[in-house]
């Protein structure tokens, strides 16, 4: 077994824990989101998926922020952050952010790397930046963003010769729809403030 394969199996295992905790809206997901990027960074850099490598640096920091944001008590309610829907304003800002990031990341990949998939890598990275921020804010629509990311990521990873990550992201694709439905249910069943 190669080092890359061992790391890929470890990353997939931690990714499954992350997914389980995210589905349950459990703050432990953020702990996994700090560990998994360290593994993924090695794999992505060695495979030339540079934007996904770079986003894992962001994942480390947003993981810390997400854990803090999900676990701290709000001064106005005395409760932790509830699951909510995005507003039209926030949704529009998210779309704008994806478009700007996609352009900037793709441009950087074309001009400063030997990436063979700059537009796809840039798109999934831009969507992931916004999706993870939405998750840290506990917006249930983050699951729809992840659905799109996962659909695109599976063939991207296959094209780069990864073995287990495409399976993980295939599972993520299905779970993202189930997660959206579950978070809607959790949001409706939360106790009144």
Helix percent band: over 70%
Strand content: under 5%
| Spatial separation of the terminal alpha carbons | 53 Å
Sheet having the most strands:
none
Cα-atom radius of gyration: 17 Å
Shape descriptor: globular
Spans of at least 5 consecutive residues whose pLDDT stays below 50 are none
For the record, the count of structural domains works out to 1
Q: In total, how many beta strands?
A: 0
**Helical run tally:** 7
Q: H/E element string?
A: HHHHHHH
Q: Tell me, rounded to a whole number, the average pLDDT.
A: 90
Helix/strand structural class: mainly alpha
Question: What features would you describe in this structure?
Answer:
- This protein has 193 residues and is mainly alpha-helical.
- It has one domain.
- The chain contains 7 helices and no strands.
- Helix 3 packs parallel to helix 5 and helix 6 packs antiparallel against helix 7.
- The chain starts with a helix and ends with a helix.
Summarize the structure.
This protein is mainly α. Helix content is 77%, strand content 0%.
Features:
mainly alpha; about 0% strand; about 190 residues
List the helices and strands and how they pair.
Layout: H1 3-23, H2 29-47, H3 50-71, H4 88-112, H5 118-136, H6 142-159, H7 165-189
């Amino acid at each position: 077994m190669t080092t890359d394969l061992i790391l890929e199996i470890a990353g997939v295992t931690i990714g499954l824990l992350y997914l389980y905790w995210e589905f349950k809206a459990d703050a432990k997901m953020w702990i996994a989101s700090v560990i998994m990027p360290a593994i993924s960074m090695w794999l992505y850099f060695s495979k030339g998926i540079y934007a996904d490598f770079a986003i894992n640096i962001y994942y480390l920091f947003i993981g810390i922020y997400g854990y803090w944001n999900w676990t701290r008590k709000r001064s106005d309610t005395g409760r932790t952050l509830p699951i909510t829907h995005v507003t039209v304003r926030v949704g529009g800002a998210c779309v704008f952010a994806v478009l700007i990031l996609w352009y900037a990341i793709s441009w950087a990949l074309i001009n400063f790397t030997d990436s063979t998939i700059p537009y796809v890598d840039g798109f999934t990275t831009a969507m992931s930046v916004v999706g993870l921020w939405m998750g840290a804010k506990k917006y249930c629509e983050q699951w729809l963003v992840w659905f799109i990311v996962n659909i695109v990521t599976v063939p991207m990873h296959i094209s780069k010769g990864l073995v287990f990550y495409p399976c993980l992201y295939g599972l993520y694709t299905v779970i993202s729809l189930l997660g959206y439905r579950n978070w809607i249910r959790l949001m409706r069943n939360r106790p009144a403030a």
